[in-house]
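=== Structure Prediction Worksheet ===
Name of assembly: unnamed complex
Input type: mixed (protein and possibly other molecules)
Chain count: two
Listed entries:
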Amino acid sequence: DTEVTQTPKHLVMGMTNKKSLKCEQHMGHRAMYWYKQKAKKPPELMFVYSYEKLSINESVPSRFSPECPNSSLLNLHLHALQPEDSALYLCASSQEFQVIIDSTGELFFGEGSRLTVL
Amino acid sequence: GEDVEQSLFLSVREGDSSVINCTYTDSSSTYLYWYKQEPGAGLQLLTYIFSNMDMKQDQRLTVLLNKKDKHLSLRIADTQTGDSAIYFCAEGASSSGGYNKLIFGAGTRLAVHP
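=== Predicted Assembly ===
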């Protein structure tokens, strides 16, 4: 199983709603990532979890709250979002976060959750 | 700081070769990657090259790396309509303490026409 599964595929929410994006992998990877991708732009890193601990927060506003309940699951809780937060949110995983010998460091990406904030 | 640059658009005729170019700034990157993204989908790793290699070939794909000029290219032979997508160059920013913090280029949109 080399898949990263994201749900939901599409989400429309109002600025006062609370919603969550979910990501799951069963490859035994110890690093999981959230990226944000705006239209016609490259993915931008938001958060990295390594061994279920938050390793990187790229100065993301607190209305985005990540959670890693276990090594296979990664959530992104959304609250009081703005219309400019509308984007494709991509989850990824890799064997490790720290570069190790004999590892390509490859990130496996999910299909993404397309979020629209009204 | 780290930066990856790509041309934004490439149009080729079906059956021709496509060459997508990329320049990067972090000379200590261990790996350089090419990802493909089809409309509305996630990113799929196409190929990668280790920084001590000059060339890597994988079926229709050839990656060339010029470390001196920090230039990376992806050649797709016999380009097909199914190759139409956005191609992202990415460097593993190992200067950030040996971590898999990928830095992506802006992406090159490849359009293949009959």
